[in-house]
Amino acid sequence: EDQVTQSPEALRLQEGESSSLNCSYTVSGLRGLFWYRQDPGKGPEFLFTLYSAGEEKEKERLKATLTKKESFLHITAPKPEDSATYLCAAGNDYKLSFGAGTTVTVRA
Amino acid sequence: GAGVSQSPSNKVTEKGKDVELRCDPISGHTALYWYRQSLGQGLEFLIYFQGNSAPDKSGLPSDRFSAERTGGSVSTLTIQRTQQEDSAVYLCASSRYRLDEKLFFGSGTQLSVL
C-alpha cells in the first residue's frame, strides 16, 4: 500500500530560524514527489515537483530535495508569511498519495 | 475561469439527507480529481476523471458516494444518505493532463453532517 509520512507534525520557528521538514514515502511506480502549501480555509497550492533522486528545486526561501526514500523541504531564514501547512505527496500514474502535513508557525 | 471553483463553500445537512457538491475546473483541463480532507488527516483520494470517464473510482468510501463529469468540464460529487463520518472538506483539483502536470485545487466544500 502506498504510504507517505511527514514529520514533524508541527514546527514553531522564530523568524530567521532555518529548519527542515521531512517526507518519507513508499509508493509503487513513483512518477513524482510533490510539495504543496496549504493556508487555512484554502486548497493546497503547488510548490514543487521532483522526479529523480538527487534533484533539487528552489523558490524564494524554500528548497526541496529528493532521495530514493525521502524528500526534505528546507526553509531558510523564514518569515511570518511562510506560516502554513506544508503537504508532501507522492504520485504514481495519476494518483497523489498525501502525507498528513507539517504545520509551520513562524513568529516575528 | 481563473481557478478551480467549488460550490457550495459550506454545507450543513442532517444525517440521512443527500448532498451534491459541484466543481468547475480550469477551462481546458482534461483531468479532474476529488479528494477528501478530514481534520488532522492527509488528503484522501476519492476519484479521478480523464475527460468524462472515471478510470479509477477505487477511493470512493462506499456505494453511497458517486460522481460524474459532463462535457469534459463540470463535475458533481453526490453523497446519498449522509452519515456523520462523511463530515470533512471535499477538495476538487484539475490539471491539463494526467499527473505530469501540477494540480490546481479549489478551496473546497466544508460538509458538516449533524
The helix/strand class of chain A is: mainly beta
Number of strands of chain A: 11
Mean pLDDT of chain A: 94
Name of the CATH homologous superfamily of chain A: Immunoglobulins
CATH topology term of chain B? Immunoglobulin-like
What would your notes on this structure say?
The complex is a heterodimer of chains A (108) and B (114). Chain A has one domain: Immunoglobulins (Immunoglobulin-like), CATH 2.60.40. Chain A has no helices and eleven strands. Chain A has strands at residues 3-7, 10-14, 19-26, 32-38, 45-50, 56-59, 62-66, 70-75, 84-91, 96-98, 102-107. In chain A, the strands form two sheets. In chain A, strands 2, 4, 5, 9, 10 and 11 form a six-stranded mixed β-sheet that branches. In chain A, strands 1-3-8-7-6 form a five-stranded antiparallel β-sheet, with no helix packed on it. Chain B has one domain: Immunoglobulin-like. In chain B, the strands form two sheets. In chain B, strands 2, 4, 5, 6, 9, 10 and 11 form a seven-stranded mixed β-sheet that branches. Chain B starts with a strand and ends with a strand. The A-B interface holds A 4, 31-32, 34, 36, 41-46, 49, 87, 89, 91-101 and B 4, 31, 33, 35, 40-45, 48, 50, 55-56, 91, 93, 98-100, 102-108.
